[in-house]
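anyone seen this seq b4? input:
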Amino acid sequence: MPIEIKVKIKEVIQRNYNVKSFRIEVPGDLNYQAGQFLSVELENNPELKKYLSISSSPTEKSYLEFTKKLTQSDFSKTLDNLKVGDQVTIQYPFGKFILDETIPKIAFLSGGIGITPIRSICKYAVDMNLPIDIGLIYSNRAVRDIVFKDDFDAMVKSHPSLKVAHVLCEAEPGFKCTIGLINSTIIKNEIPDYLEKRFYLCGPPAMVEAMRKILVEELGLQNDKIIMENFQGY
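predicted toks r here
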């Protein structure tokens, strides 16, 4: 059952020009699974409440982290002003976008801030040294929009069975990527054993549905091999 508690901001991390991570102190043992989400309420005001993915892994035991793309919403503006020591109210954990450790081959298709629960799952798999083959195709407009780039670079180095492919709209000299949007050809090229994978899709609803259609209608996957998480109004 989810619990509701007041917690303090422990650390604020600028991930890129418009994305921040907030690490919070949670008393007692952390009780969640990689890929789940929480609710965050600011200033004891139900009007300033959002559901956000947990971007930390259960292996990172000294904090709980959530990550948000900062927009012009009242919630984002208030969140952006939070400092270390400020309090927020959280409720967690929620969600079934979680890792089945019995599946030997998995793949993620994600865009933008949809990477947050995927970072949690991949970090957990790497830290636990799970014998799982993981492929990730991550779509963004440009290199500057990539979230957790350094984290994934480090994970790939320490866990050879994790492979990350970037798909961008804008090229940048010296950065390895495919230009365009995720399509069936890119999936075939980057994940040649796609028919053996269980796919996790996370991002804006339109993108998630487009990815599902590609997998089912163009690549022949069954719906029961696809797990989806939609980010509404982030």
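The domain at 105-230 is CATH 3.40.50.80 (Rossmann fold). The first helix runs from residue 74 to 80. kinda curious what u guys think
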